[in-house]
Write a structure and sequence with these properties.
The protein is about 40% helix and about 20% strand. By secondary structure, the protein is an alpha/beta fold. It folds into two domains: about 230 residues, Aldehyde Dehydrogenase, Chain A, domain 1 (3-Layer(aba) Sandwich), CATH 3.40.605.10; about 140 residues, Aldehyde Dehydrogenase, Chain A, domain 2. Strands 10-9-11-8-7-12-13 form a seven-stranded parallel beta sheet, sandwiched between helices. The protein has a four-stranded parallel beta sheet with strand order 5-4-3-6, sandwiched between helices. The termini are far apart. The relative contact order is 0.14.
């Protein structure tokens, strides 16, 4: 770990001084290499998929790469290369009465450690974002995605080196040994920030053991609230997409909240989910709407299923929804469906989550959908960065103070 960290630190110093165009050229070359080695990447992923037959369907979906997903990965790297470079940007500046000119300027964080499970595309997304923000990255994939991640990493390094950038800017730990996670978490002075991308047990371990700063979210217990003034056809489309588009992502809806005033009219919304194979667990007052509904337990409101399972509750208006989310939400992503602007604005202001949506699916909780090119993760913390973390979230800042000979008086 010390050797990897030293190499990454040297690469980070090189990256920090590179102009935007050089970093963009490196990422463009990396994207080209991903396309050129697509067959190799897909072959590695096939081997990972064959070894992952015991995983849930949702986890297998996270792991799976297709030609379309490989192309999307390459396009995502190119999209990051085309984004405005945050490094060197002046956040704010001012002049003091004594003539000192002070500027707060964005700078890279340094070396970022990314620990992830299942999703091999994190290799490309995280690598591209770290590099464009002037950081080196050390990646530790899980055992289920190790072959795929190694193939993607090899392609990206090939492209970076061909463009004249240091290969050590993007390093991949060659083993899924859990001891390596502990080594990364203890790597003070070698790694400046750790980002875990995986299940609750991984994130909990990272938060408990880390001696370096951590950027993460623990749970994605996301809600959609259907208000009494909602367009129910729109509500049906949003609820269905929020749950069923991809059930295994952190932005998937896990709890549907329905205003009690319109609950008798929401049977078709629940029926559509049931017809698609979703296990819908509901409060007692909703059970008569469809015989396939099953009773919800108290544990359901605090569960991130990451599967085709949904809990549904009625609440007393928007304030009831806000109270339910405050009691059971994880601060990740929550949505309201309503035609009443005042109600929507009240929800958006009162719910304390990283991402709030009005009349839109929670599955938009994604850096790419925000126009960030990609994301390194979604943070539910309140310090440094919150929500989808992309280029700006991978920088810190320093102050540049310019004077004309000033000295501080006694």
């Amino acid at each position: 770990m010390a050797e990897l960290g030293a190499r990454a630190r040297r690469a980070a110093r090189t990256l920090a001084g590179l102009p935007t165009a050089r970093k963009a050229e490196g990422l463009t070359a990396a994207a080209g290499a991903i396309r050129a080695r697509a067959a190799e990447i897909l072959s590695a992923n096939t081997a990972d998929m064959e070894a992952a037959q015991g995983l849930s369907p949702a986890m297998q979906d996270r792991l799976l790469l297709t030609p379309g997903r490989v192309e999307a990965m390459a396009a995502g790297v190119e999209a990051v290369a085309a984004l405005p470079d945050p490094v060197g940007a002046v956040i704010k500046s001012w002049r003091r009465p004594n003539g000192l000119s002070i500027a707060q300027v964005r700078v890279p964080i340094g070396v970022i450690g990314i620990i992830f499970e299942s999703r091999p595309n994190v290799t490309a997304d995280a690598g591209a974002l770290c590099l464009m923000a002037g950081n080196a990255a050390i990646l530790r994939p899980g055992s289920e995605s190790l072959r795929s991640a190694a193939a993607i990493h090899g392609a990206m390094v090939e492209g970076l080196v061909a463009a004249g950038l240091p290969g050590d800017a993007l390093q991949l730990l060659p083993s899924a040994d859990r001891a390596l996670v502990g080594a990364m978490l203890r790597a003070e002075g070698q790694i400046d920030l750790v980002v875990p991308r995986g299940g609750k047990s991984l994130v909990a371990r990272v938060r408990e053991e880390a001696r370096v700063p951590v950027l993460s979210h623990l749970d994605g217990i996301c809600h959609v609230y259907i208000d009494r003034s909602a367009d129910l056809r729109m509500a049906s489309d949003i609820a269905f997409n929020a749950k069923m588009r991809r059930t295994g992502i952190c932005g998937a809806m896990e709890t549907l909240l329905i205003d009690r005033a319109i609950a008798p009219r929401c049977g078709p919304i629940l029926g559509r989910l049931l017809d698609a194979g979703c296990d819908v667990r509901a409060t007692a007052d909703l059970l008569p709407l469809d015989p396939r509904l099953t009773p919800a337990s108290p544990e359901d409101w605090d569960t991130e299923y990451l599967d085709a399972i949904l809990s549904v509750a009625t609440v007393e208006g928007v304030d009831g929804a806000i109270a339910h989310i405050a009691a059971h939400g994880s601060g990740h992503t929550d949505s309201i469906v309503t035609e009443d602007e005042a109600t929507a604005e009240h929800f958006l202001s009162a719910v304390d989550s990283a991402i709030l949506l009005w009349n839109a699916s929670t599955q938009f909780a994604d850096g790419g959908e925000f126009g960030f090119g990609a994301e390194i993760g979604i943070s539910t913390g309140r310090l440094h960065a919150r929500g989808p973390v992309a280029l700006e979230g991978l920088t810190t800042y320093k102050y540049k103070v310019r004077g004309t000979g000033q000295v501080r008086p006694d």
